[in-house]
Design a protein that fits this description.
By secondary structure, this protein is mainly alpha-helical. Helices cover about 65% and strands about 5% of the residues. The protein has 2 domains: about 375 residues, no CATH class; about 120 residues.
Length: about 500
């Protein structure tokens, strides 16, 4: 059997690598439920869900939104199709979504392998492709709905075809089409496409640069331009609003130092190996100039922009990791020092693989935001007239109503003790009374329950406690301010 597998590996390396890459992504699709961050649920999932249940949400839109409607619209069509064939359960729908993203994410591995072939040798490409297939954060982030990740396959395809444009000019146009699609998903990838085009101009490859620009403009105009005309009345309305908003509100969100993303990548690439990989990335810049400078420009822009959130850098993690692996492998193959210290090289790689699998397994099984999703899923199939959300030490959270399959506008939030009387007064005058309450946080739960009962004059009957997943609990304890992964307590509000 081992001889057969070895022969298949040598004969069909890219197929072998894709099959290997598929396994952890399928595991993540089935087990890594929930959502990683706010924007990968409340944009592409929650918005089309609301429109399906209340079309006035779309009809009454006012002001241009600074995000593309294309990716949410794809989910709208998908959800409509699933409903048409009788699929109603929200968890089943999200499983389909994750499976589709798992398959789509294989393009990252495919174009990573092809790019490594162009920049190095087939043997290096096989090793680099295998590392990209099993790199620990990719299965988890690939099956969720982050535009920072969805844009990676067309962006990497664009870089690959730009490299191949030296062989045939038609590949430059293909590159432009791919860059245009990446732009539709995430506008900031314009930096990658623009840098690649500038490098072609610097090399005096005028026609290739023109074809890249033409392909990008054509694809972006047909998809994003027409979508914005449909939604907002004129082309690229959301693009203009996106850049306007971010220039005006760059300091309104998480602000970090310039080295924030550098430290993040050094940690993700597993120290001490990460320092050697970074050296390989930087040392090989001449040979990999198109991919290197395109991703470096994006990385420098993110590092200099005040608003810093971890997900922003996800878009360039695979290409930077790929170039790092290629550079380090090629360097150790020719360095006199490392050729004399092969044991040290092997030890570094053994350490990397051990730590990578230690991280890969739990993250591929990670049910993120479990208590939030399961507390809403508890109401699937139940009649609910409204919710009272009672915050704990870190307040309340926006409920992912998709999992209840019910759009509830009748929501009342109690962030702190001082809100109880205010909300109680609102409820006394409400035309429709909510029939459930959710308490977040286990601390002082009995006392908070009693205070709300007394304020409302209604009995609260306990129904279910939903705890966060193991990693949710870990992240909450590490940073409770930004990771509100608390236990949820569901109560029925009796008359």
């Amino acid at each position: 059997m081992s001889a057969i597998l070895r022969h298949f590996w040598e004969k069909h390396p890219i197929v072998s690598i894709l099959l290997i890459a598929l396994l952890p992504r399928l595991i993540a699709a089935f087990f890594s439920k929930g959502y990683g961050m706010h924007d990968d649920h409340f944009g592409p999932i929650e918005q089309p869900f609301i429109i399906m249940h209340d079309h006035s949400y779309w009809d009454d839109r006012s002001g241009v939104h600074g995000h593309s409607i294309v990716y949410p619209a794809l989910h709208f069509v998908l959800f409509k199709g699933m409903q048409a064939v009788g699929m109603q359960d929200p968890q089943d729908k999200m499983l389909v979504v994750r499976l589709l993203h798992a398959l789509y994410s294989l393009l990252v591995v495919y174009f990573g392998f092809r790019t490594a072939e162009q920049l190095s040798s087939r043997e290096t490409a096989k090793k680099a492709g295998l590392l990209l297939a099993l790199f620990w954060p990719l299965p988890f982030i690939s099956v969720h709905n982050l535009i920072e990740v969805v844009c990676i396959p067309p962006m990497m395809a664009g870089l690959y075809y730009t490299l191949r444009s030296e062989e045939k000019r038609k590949f430059a146009f293909y590159a432009g089409l791919c860059f245009g699609l990446a732009f539709v998903f995430r506008y900031q990838t314009l930096i990658v496409a623009g840098t690649a085009g500038l490098i072609l101009l610097f090399r005096k490859q005028w026609k290739e640069a023109l074809l890249v620009a033409a392909g990008s403009i054509l694809c972006a105009s047909v998809i994003q331009g027409s979508a914005d005309i449909f939604a907002w009345g004129y082309p690229f309305a959301s693009v203009i609003e996106y850049f306007r908003y971010n220039s005006m509100h760059s300091m309104d969100y998480t602000v970090g130092p310039w080295y924030n993303y550098t430290l993040l990548l050094l940690g993700a690439f597993i120290p001490p190996m990460s320092f050697f990989l970074f050296y390989g990335w930087l040392k090989n810049w001449r040979k990999t100039s198109i991919v290197f400078f395109s991703t470096m420009a994006f990385f420098v822009f993110l590092s200099s922009f005040p608003n810093k959130q971890e997900r922003f850098v996800f878009s360039v993690v695979p290409p930077i990791f790929l170039l790092s692996v290629i550079g380090w492998m090629e360097y150790t193959a020719v360095s006199d020092f490392w050729r004399k210290h092969r044991t040290a090289v092997r030890s570094l790689w053994i350490w990397f693989w051990i730590m990578n699998f230690i991280l890969l397994i739990p993250f591929s099984l990670y049910y993120s935001k479990r208590s939030r999703c399961e507390s809403m899923y508890y109401f699937y199939g139940k009649k609910i007239t409204g919710l009272v959300l009672v915050g704990g030490s870190v307040g309340t959270i926006q409920p992912p109503q998709f999992y209840s399959d019910q759009y509830m506008e009748n929501l009342f939030q109690i962030e702190s003790e001082t809100d109880i009387q205010r909300v109680a007064q609102q409820l006394r005058s409400a035309a429709v009374q909510p029939n459930y309450a959710i308490f977040f946080g286990i601390e002082d739960i009995d006392a908070r329950h009693s205070r709300l009962e007394n304020a409302l004059g209604r009995k609260l009957a306990f129904e279910k406690q939903i705890d966060p997943s193991f990693l949710d609990e870990v992240f909450y304890r590490l940073n409770p301010k930004h990771n509100k992964n608390q236990s949820a307590f569901i109560y029925r509000m009796e008359r």
